[in-house]
Amino acid sequence: MLFFNLAGASGGALSGMVVAQTSYAGLSFAGSFLSLLLIPVVIWSRRSQRLTEKS
User: Fold this and answer.
1) Among 22, 32, 49, 50, which is disulfide-ready with 26 (CB 3.0 to 4.6 Å)?
2) What are the pLDDT digits (tens) for 3-30?
3) 46 vs 30: CA distance, rounded Å
4) pTM strictly above 0.70
């Protein structure tokens, strides 16, 4: 549970730094880019779980 709290606090601090250096548009672009990067990770994770369940 502590790690979730630390991750939330770190994310909030990092987003504040990004907005301070760029803008809200930069923050939204970075968030969109990171969310698109997560799609293949989720697909790969689900595929590997299915393969381990079958064997």
Assistant:
1) 22
2) 889 998 998 898 888 888 888 888 888 8
3) 25
4) no
